[in-house]
TrEMBL record:
Chitin-binding type-4 domain segment(s): 22-201
N-acetylglucosamine binding protein A domain location: 210-302
Keyword Transmembrane helix listed: no
CDD domains, alphabetized: LPMO_AA10
Upper lineage: Bacteria, Pseudomonadati, Pseudomonadota, Gammaproteobacteria, Lysobacterales
Classification via InterPro entries: Cellulose/chitin-bd_N, GbpA_2, GlcNAc_Chitin_IntDeg, Ig-like_fold, Ig_E-set, PKD_dom_sf
Species of the source: Tahibacter soli
Protein name (database record): Lytic polysaccharide monooxygenase
């Protein structure tokens, strides 16, 4: 490999790196681009200042580099809930702050109901797809952004780079109203790498009157006579409204009782609605085990709780418990999970409902007392959370367990970092990092960063900018 010139090294070590960057939305401006256009070292914008206090200034010098090197279209797997705006990259964690004062840009559709987004490509790449999401009506900007808060409204293929080094992305705009976040994903086709962008916007029509409080999920059928209660609380924790619904005969199926409950709430509540919110602001119940959500009036600032009380049969509900054969797995493997230790005071017949709450894996059974969690070797560390609902005729109880799933660090390597630095070959050299995992130096030109002797920035797996130089194996 040709060695870099002294001038090259001087620039790298004295100024934040912009050479191997990639891009961000400029029309409307993304959250990170907006902050980068101000005084990065001493921001006056309150949200940008808070982001700097949380994560430093490097995130704004690197405004074009919110990426995941091994996304490969598995975006929900590599970018966790609450970390979407930073792309799951800790360097950009300041962008994930849940605030209502991020600078938002008014946007409106043209005569054809469309809008041209402009993405500045500082380092163009071959494209698999551009995906646009928008927050749902009732989304709360003061809560961490989740994938469940979004729905896709536009997907484009390999759009050609326009003059000026920008991508012009023409999409139909959703019929949203008021303040929202548009979330953009740019997936490369020549690499597994993807880039992530949050754009704060204001659609015509003012602010929405409803806040999405969460789902009503019919995980199990309910016995006739079961009481389902919606409780609404104010900021002090006091009850302000209670709506009770008693399940009638023939209406206890998992897809039916949430629908009947929603009808009851919508007929009697002065402060809440249950159902599915459409683009026109209507909230209508749906017959489904999932799909109905609780909405409260935004001006009321309420919290909610749904209580389910089984009919008095003299049977005490169980207390769920999970035992796991392991709580840490490296690479591919499996974990046996058992709920046989759940207490059952009345010795009544029990049913089980297993589900994966977060992370990626498969369950051998969802309705047996014991199940096996199968785990494929992950591209990077993840936490897989599995929950079980244990039920009898007297009620139900939930329990969950978190499994730490580690990427495998096995295999051969050329050096233990930082030994050999200065002689690493882009695209070829494999080193063992301080975390015990293996990393390959990125191909040229990104691979130039591998040989820079700055562990703070480029130590594989731990440096602030390690993903610019290395690929975890």
């Amino acid at each position: 490999m040709r060695s870099a010139t002294p001038l090259f090294f001087a620039l790298v070590l004295s100024t934040p790196s912009l050479v191997l960057a990639h891009g961000s939305m400029t029309t409307p401006p993304s959250r990170v681009y907006t902050c980068a256009q101000g005084n990065i070292e001493n921001p006056t914008d309150p949200a940008c200042k808070a982001a700097t206090q949380a994560a430093g200034t490097q995130q704004f010098y690197d405004w074009m580099s919110i990426n995941q090197a091994n996304a490969n279209s598995n975006h929900t797997a590599v970018v966790p809930d609450g970390k979407l705006c930073g792309g799951g990259n800790p360097t950009f964690r300041g962008l994930d702050l849940a605030r209502a004062d991020w600078q938002a840009t008014p946007i409106a559709p043209d005569a054809n109901g469309r809008f041209e987004f402009v993405f500045r490509g500082t380092a163009p790449h071959a494209t698999k797809d551009w995906i646009f999401y928008v927050t749902r009506e009732g989304w709360d900007p003061n809560q961490p952004l989740r994938w469940a808060d979004l729905y896709e409204f536009c997907r484009l293929g390999n759009v050609a780079l326009s003059s000026g080094g920008v991508y012009r992305l023409n999409c139909p705009l959703p019929q949203s109203r008021g303040r929202h976040v548009i979330y953009n994903v740019w997936q490369r086709s020549d690499s597994t790498e993807a880039f992530y962008t949050c754009v704060d916007v204001v659609f015509p029509g003012g602010s929405t009157s409803w806040v999405d409080e969460g789902p009503v999920t019919g995980q199990n059928a309910l016995a006739t006579g079961t009481t389902v209660t919606l409780r609404l609380f104010n900021a002090a924790g006091n009850d302000v409204e209670r709506i009770e619904h008693v399940v009638a005969a023939g209406q206890g199926a998992a897809a039916e009782w949430p629908y009947q409950f929603a009808l009851a709430v919508n007929a009697r509540s002065q402060r809440a609605r249950v159902g599915r919110l459409d683009g026109a602001g209507n909230i209508d119940p749906v017959r489904a085990a999932s799909g109905n959500r609780v909405y409260t009036r935004s001006a009321d600032n309420l919290n909610h709780q749904i209580d389910i009380r089984a009919p008095d049969t003299g049977v005490q509900p169980p207390v769920a418990a999970i035992s796991a054969s392991a709580t840490t797995v490296t690479g591919a493997g499996s974990v046996t999970l058992s709920a046989t230790g759940s207490s059952n005071p009345s010795n009544a017949a029990l049913t089980y409902n297993w589900r994966i709450v977060s992370g990626t894996g498969t369950l051998s059974s969802t309705n047996a007392a014991t199940t096996t969690l199968q785990l494929a070797a992950p591209p990077q560390d993840q936490t897989v959370t599995v929950a079980v609902t244990v039920s009898n005729s007297g009620g139900s109880d939930d329990e969950s367990v978190a499994i730490a799933h580690r990427a495998s660090g096995g295999g051969t390597y050329d050096y233990v970092y930082p030994a050999g630095i200065g002689s690493y070959v882009p695209g070829t050299t494999i080193v063992k990092g301080s975390d015990g995992l293996r990393y390959r130096c990125r191909p040229f030109p990104e691979g130039q960063w591998c040989n820079i002797d700055s562990a703070f920035h480029y130590a594989p797996g731990t440096g602030a900018n390690w993903q610019d130089a290395w690929v975890r194996l």
